[in-house]
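Model the whole thing, not chain by chain.
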Amino acid sequence: MKHPLLTSEAIKALSPLEADIVRAMQPAGKYSAAEIYTNISSRQKVAHSSISVLLDRLYKRGVVSRETKTARGGIRFIYSLETNKERYEKSVVDNTVNLLIKRFGAKAIAYFNESLKTKR
Amino acid sequence: MLGTLLDTARIYFTQFISHPLTLFVLIASLFLSTLFYFLFKKTDQIKVKVSFLYTHIFFLFFPFLFSFFIKNCWKCILPLCDCSTKVLVYGISAGIGIAFISSFILLPYLYTWANKSQEVNEGKLKGLLLQHCQALGLPLPKLYTFNDLTPLAYSITNIRPSIFVSVGLCELLSEKEMEAVLLHELYHIRNKTSFWRFSTHTLKIFSPLSTFITLDRSISREELEADLFAAEIQQTSRHLDSAKQRINRMNRKIHEFKG
C-alpha cells in the first residue's frame, strides 16, 4: 500500500538509502530500526548503524515520527511514517528549499526574491 | 547611579582598611583563603577537594561579611546611598544567593524538563539498577531515558540522584554493556561527581584564582576510576571496552552522516 503523503517528488528529495528505508515502511506500520535493517539488508549490504542514523535524520526532517518503547528486549525507538500532512509538507518544502540554497547559493535566493516580487 | 555606587565603594574600602580589626580580618582571611586554595589543588580525593574549595570561597568573602554584618558597616554606608542603589546592592546579593541555591535544587528537574526525559519504572535496566544499588548499599536513583540517537549517559546527584541514558544508547548496547554503563554512573553517584562539577563551576564564578585551575586531570581520573569500578563489579572489562568501541563507532557514523 502506497503512503498518500509520499509522492514521487518527495521520494526524489531523499538519498537512495533514505528512499529505501521509506519504501520498507508500510503507512500504518510501526518498526524498530532492527526490523528495517533486516528488511533492507536482505537486498543490499548496509550497516545497522547507518539505518539508525538515517532514521534519525528522517525523523528530524519530519518524514517519520518515533516513540520510545520499553519492551522485554530493552528500550528502543519505534518508527512510523509521518501522518501529519501539515508537518510533512513543511518538511518537504524545507528540505527542497535548503537543497536548492545549498546547491545554487545566492542564485537560488535571488530567484526566490524575484519570483516573490513578480507574484506581488 | 554608577557614580554613587563608586563613591559608596570608595567610602566602604576607606573605612575597611583604616580600621585595624577589619584590616587584620582581611589579611588573615586572604591568607587562609590562599592556603585552602593550595590544599584544594594538592588533594586528589574529591570529597576533601570540595570541602577545601568551599572553605576557600568562604574565606575569600569573609572580610566583607564580617564588616557588613558584625561591624555593622552597612549601617554607615547604606544611608549614603539613594533608594535605587540600595535596591541594587540588596538585589544583586539576594539574586546571587537565590540563583546558587535554586540552581542546586532545580538542576535535576531542569535536566528532566530540557531533555523531555521519561522515567523508567520497569524493565531489565531498572532491575539491574535495583540489584546493584542493593548490593552496594546505595539509594536507588531515578532512571530516565531521553529521545536522542546519540549514545549518551550521565548522572546527577543534587538532592535527587538520577541517571539519564539516551534511547540511542539503549538500542546500541547489549544488556551486559548497559550494565557496565550503569555501574559507571553509579560510581559517579556514589562519589557525588556531579556535585563536584557543580562546585567547580561555582568556584569559577566566585574565585579569581579559578583561572589557574585545570580540572581535566581530576575529571579524567574520576572517569578512569568509574571504569575500574564497573570492571571490578563485572569481574571483566570486556563489556565496558566493547561498549566504548560501539559508542565510538556510532559517534563516528553520526559525524560522517552530518558531514
